[in-house]
Design a protein that fits this description.
GO terms for molecular function: oxidoreductase activity, acting on NAD(P)H. It holds the Pfam family ADH_N. It comes from Penicillium freii. InterPro entries: ADH-like_N, ER, GroES-like_sf, NAD(P)-bd_dom_sf, Trans-enoyl_RdTase-like. This is Enoyl reductase (ER) domain-containing protein. The chain is an alpha/beta fold. The protein has 2 domains: 160 residues, Quinone Oxidoreductase, Chain A, domain 1 (Alpha-Beta Complex); 141 residues, NAD(P)-binding Rossmann-like Domain (Rossmann fold, 3-Layer(aba) Sandwich). It contains 11 helices and 16 strands. The strands form 3 sheets. Strands 3, 5, 6, 7, 8, 15 and 16 form a 7-stranded mixed β-sheet that branches. A 6-stranded parallel β-sheet has the order 11-10-9-12-13-14, sandwiched between helices. It has a 3-stranded antiparallel β-sheet with strand order 2-1-4, with no helix packed on it. β12, α8 and β13 form a beta-alpha-beta unit. It is globular.
Length: 345
């Protein structure tokens, strides 16, 4: 193993990242692991932090959240779960906790061991890299007591066994793709929106009723359908939350809206509760829902082959860190129902 690590630094917003070398992390906390990254995935959040100076982000930093690779070293407490050589996926929280060594875009990354899980031998690192941030975001909105407060998913829950429904707005997005699967594993009927192009894709993930967000009367269509039975809430997985808030306002039921994007003032009708998922509090915010992700349901479902790789990865580059900016530039142009990934060289 080389003694040096390479990291893609974002010195400030509005500039390109710069690759720099430093020693591989050797002094890690008891509940941390060091992972040699084989594949990175890029997220819209990375593009935003690169381009826009956000008040809660401390520059300079190492961007990135999604990694898949092999464990290099293990803190004393983490040995209960991991050993060197384990194949894992993990959620890197460097930007959230202002610790550059915990940002994903580097050859060796420090992870909180509770934000990682082993992957089956049959699963490629490329496929594994698509999950971390998207499933964590979806799970936080669905299962946290601060948001929709659903029961946790299991690998034995029968589809639609609750007799209740949920609306997922933006089902073909990365977060939406995970939200659909998590809700099916929780026993709910899933209503979702997407483009006509992605309708079969979301049905393949388990969506029961699909609506085209481009239809002029889509809000009324959705309200009619969800009011046929008890709906437990609305999860806005992508896009601005105005349409979801209008659905909640028009429904005869009282529906909470959990949104993965900001909820601007003036977009929430009177009587509707809508809140953005606050996902910048570090690992601690994910502990509450860890049984639905890295410490429970996800590794079980992956081992059983019942959780789909979605969105499908698209390899942008095999140049390692030198290919990250290419992936970010492509992401900024817009992608649909796929996850852009970069393979280490």
């Amino acid at each position: 193993m080389t003694n040096m690590n390479r990291s893609l630094w974002q010195d400030e917003a509005g500039v390109l990242g710069v690759i720099r070398e430093s020693p591989i992390p050797s002094q890690i906390a008891d509940k941390q692991i060091v992972v040699k990254v084989h594949v990175w995935a890029v997220n819209p959040a990375d593009a935003v932090v690169q381009d826009i100076p956000l008040p809660f982000i401390k520059y300079p930093l190492t961007l990135g959240e999604d990694v898949a690779g092999t464990v290099e070293s293990v803190g004393s407490a983490a040995t209960a779960k991991f050993q060197p050589g384990d194949r894992v996926l993990g959620l890197a929280l460097g930007a959230a906790v202002a610790k550059p060594e915990q940002g994903a875009f580097q050859d060796y990354v420090v992870l909180d061991y509770s934000m990682a899980c082993k992957i089956p031998d049959s699963m490629s690192f490329t496929n594994a890299s698509v999950f971390p941030l998207c499933i964590a975001t979806a799970a936080y909105g669905l299962f946290s007591k601060d948001y929709l407060d659903l029961p946790f998913p299991t690998t034995t829950t029968a589809p639609n066994s609750t007799g209740k429904s949920i609306l997922i707005w933006g089902g073909s997005s990365g977060v939406g793709s995970n939200a659909i699967q998590l809700c099916k594993a929780t026993g709910f009927e899933v209503l979702t929106t997407c483009s006509a192009h992605n309708a079969e894709y979301v049905r393949g993930l388990g969506a029961d009723k699909v609506f085209y967000y481009t239809d002029a009367d889509v809000i009324d269509q959705v309200v009619v359908e969800l009011d046929k039975s008890e709906c437990i809430g609305i999860f806005q997985a992508a896009g601005e939350p105005g349409p979801s808030c209008q659905v909640a306002h028009k429904s005869r039921q009282t529906l909470r809206v959990a949104a993965s994007n900001p909820v601007p003032e003036g977009t929430v009708p009177e009587g509707v509760e809508a809140n953005m998922i606050f996902a910048s509090g570090g690992a601690v915010i994910y502990y509450e829902i860890n049984k639905a992700t890295f410490a429970g349901y996800l590794p079980e479902a992956l081992a059983q082959g019942t959780y789909q790789v979605a969105p499908a990865p698209e390899i942008v580059s095999t140049k390692g860190l030198e290919g990250i900016q290419e992936a970010l530039d492509l992401l900024k142009k817009g992608v649909s129902a796929k996850k852009l990934v970069v393979v280490a060289n």
